Amino acid sequence: xxxxxxxxxxxxxxxxxxxxxxxxxxxxxxxxxxxxxxxxxxxxxxxxxxxxxxxxxxxxxxxxxxxxxxxxxxxxxxxxxxxxxxxxxxxxxxxxxxxxxxxxxxxxxxxxxxxxxxxxxxxxxxxxxxxxxxxxxxxxxxxxxxxxxxxxxxxxxxxxxxxxxxxxxxxxxxxxxxxxxxxxxxxxxxxxxxxxxxxxxxxxxxxxxxxxxxxxxxxxxxxxxxxxxxx
Length: 231
Description:
- The protein has about 230 residues and is α/β, with parallel strands linked by helices.
- The chain has helices spanning about 15-25, 55-70, 80-85, 150-160, 205-215; strands spanning about 1-5, 30-35, 45-50, 75, 100, 110-115, 135-140, 145-150, 165-170, 180-185, 190-195.
């Protein structure tokens, strides 16, 4: 099963670690460097976005088709920003943008953060192999800040388990403020994560979950997330 690694440049440390993580999970990584190839993005069984520009409309339209076909798309670090700013997460009608990122970081860049599944997490393409007791230690290698979500949208996302991961202490105790570490769409085949689970092997269960989701042939109709604004 082939997974496209989408990025702006090649041979980064993140790229190498991602390749290793996908191989450990039994998947075949396919490098796709934006702007350095005249070839269209190959049709793969899944996609990992490490970095991309919001203005890349060709990539966006391709990913929309693949998402609507039920294929998993994981955005990490700057790739998470692309999914958020393009409206792929949380997947509102017509892919309206509903989430932003602020400039305040929960920790220093390159410092490890601890995270675990949220209390009402969604059982989706990236969580099948994880248990609530699992604690991941992932580095933040990008200056991304934290999620900013309108109260009404946040309410609906929490009800449906779309705030999938939360920051915690090394002992698994939840951090009270700015604790959202990853968010997904309603169907659960798209997730934006600010930290890097491929670094150090702590997040291998995320990639093994992605493998099993593909292997089991999950194909769901992607329906938009609706909410009524609350002030």
